[in-house]
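Example 3.
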Amino acid sequence: MKNVAFVVAIGAVLIAGTASAAPLGVNVKKTTVLEADVLTPSTKHSAASLQKRLPSFDLNRSYKTAGGATITGRQYLEVVNALQAAADKAGCTLGTKKSCNFIASEAKLSKAGLERVANLATLKLAIRKLPTPVKLGKPEKAAKAPLGFSWSNEWGTRSRAAVYAGAEFGTDGSTSSSSCGGAAFAGVFVFNRQKEVLRLEGEARAAASGASASVSASSELFVLGDSVWSKSGSFTATPLAFEKSFSVSKSFTYWGLITINLAAKTTASAYISGSLGGTASAGAYSCSVNMTPGVRATLGGSAEVAILGYGDISAGAVGVEADVTLADVSLPIKASATISSAGSSVKFTETLQVDLAMKYLKGSLDAYFKTVIPLDGESILDWDNDKFTFTLIEFDGYSYNHTLFSKSAEQTL
Amino acid sequence: MEGENAVMHRILGPGRLAALALLALTTACASPEPPERAAFIPARSPAPAREQAPELASVCPLLRDAPAPIQADITGGAGACPVTAAVQTAMPRSAAIGEDELNTLRSDIARAVAEHPRECVAELGRELVAATDCGIVYDAVAVRILTSPAVDPRLAAGELLRPAQCQWKLLSALRESTSIDPTIAATLLGLTTSADEDVRKAAWMTLGTVGRLARESARPELFACIEEHIASELRSPTDTLRPVLIAAAGNAGCERCGDQLHALLASDDGAQRRLGVTALRFLPGERDVAALCRVLLTAPESSLRGSAAFALRHGREQLERRLACLFEAATEDEAEFVSRDAVTSIAELASRSELGVGTLVQVVRFGAHESARAAAASALRAFATEEAIAELLNAPPAPAGGAGP
């Protein structure tokens, strides 16, 4: 079932609601449209041709639109020709109540623009050379080259929609302590706006503390920058989910004529389960992490569409059809580190495994308007229900399951 | 019980407390449910956990005089809210529910709550009280009950007060609010003294988020109330609550907590330093950003430097300073993931500023690691054409100078 936003009100440019509709289908022709494209109609309407349909049509006369705005006959003619040219470009015929479909492409910085902002950065950022990080001395004998894992990846197109995930985890040990910890994160890009839906930071440490032994552990979960869950000490977390939505507004202008103001709303759930902790006793210190953070995110939206010179096309249906799964990604992380006495020496054993399971980027988001644009009560061109669709996001759907890192090691300290 | 009453008097005032008690009593007497069901009726309010409960005298008038919460009768039958049955079916299947079903459920709940706010708050409120799975479906219901514009904030606040297994989770759903009501804030403040430790913690952390939302939605007086309260508690916290209060201060962007948060950066305990770093993420001051930069550029522990890179992407102030030290980390840090974290933060800031885009260009040229340079180039694709980036990558790097790129 496809979730679809559609127009539910007359009198406004657009109000999005929810209903069902069939997808465009594989046989529907689509044409790429750039924001910088110029329209050149193959067939041009004239005042005379419109007068054949409506004898009272006059270029200089003011007409009232269905939305209450006024438009001159000349403006109306310009819109008619522009939309006719757009239909030509898409290879569709107006008046057949079919869709003209465009895959939208947007303007980006050229090399000159890129150089300009790079120079701006050079001038504005008074970068100071700060001291090189100081390495802490370790009084006790430390493990050599403990296991560490750092990985991140990204899928999709940031300027439309993309998803990313990553993790940085590691173990460490010395003759008197063991530690496991790091961070995992996952997020999305929607129209260039980055939103880190989930960031989990956690660490556990088991160590000698004077004459006794202690375990310290802490973990914190951030959802879109908010700390929503924080634990100190060892814990086991039953599956939890935290939903958060955010909207990104974006305008697209095509042919200097049609402006789509899109509010893309992402609804994401960050979830987590697992445990973190350790044990400490004389001569043996161990820590363990077994956490699965994950994110599920979908995209919907609403839109306003304006046609230059035409005012509110309030009689036209305008909306968004959206059914985009951005991601369902989880990163099961298992880490452990143990130090234990082995005769006169100390044995350090460690394991680290990080898996990735994800389904991502499936579906499409289209903004559309229907060409129900004759003047109020005066049907000049029979375009009712012809539909201009702009595909802003489109993905086929992918899945990926992989062990990112798996290693065990042992050494004598 | 005497303690509970005292706290409720402080939170709600005697008149409102009496009204709430009467409401609970009426609800209980009218209940046709068996005792097990009746146990869910909120006949009691959060008990105080300790002596340092918020003193009403110290709470600013905005919260002290906020209208009292009201509670829906959750003892009635089902049917008036069109999604109750669907929620009952889905709630225990949180872990297995599909994306399509979840999205449909979210839409249906939102529509039902908008059209039948009182009925849905009552019926879905009962499901929330009975829930034992605090998972994805619970959250979907909680968010829509608490944040729907159709629901009277006093009614939403009443739901927060019902003791339940997932009560702490209900509180945390307020992060989705777009407008903050004093009754909600006052109720959260009251719940910071709950006998349930999870509820107490969630109340503090959510209060922090609510405070920041109040500031962002031009309610500075409400933000100031909440900020002062968090700062006051943070001056003498219990050991159990200390990390939570730090997280609350971080969520709020609590400037008055600055001294305590900065002090954490000097702690011997790595976990405390990390908490301090992330808690500074929304603070706007020059010294706050400078402190994060210092950690990013000088901390011996790479994981702490990574946390600082993460923290620096959040604030909206001191953009140039943030970008300057993130650039430094992206081009100097020996740890590859810290360098990449810095690039991620620059990319986040680039979506708000051309200066950030320019910084990405410079990282493409001078990044410390190949992966950082690649990450910056990838981020640039959001802003520039493939041709422009290709030319940039092929161009000989400009001579590096003492002032940077």
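DSSP finds three helices and 18 strands in chain A. The first helix of chain A runs from residue 47 to 53.
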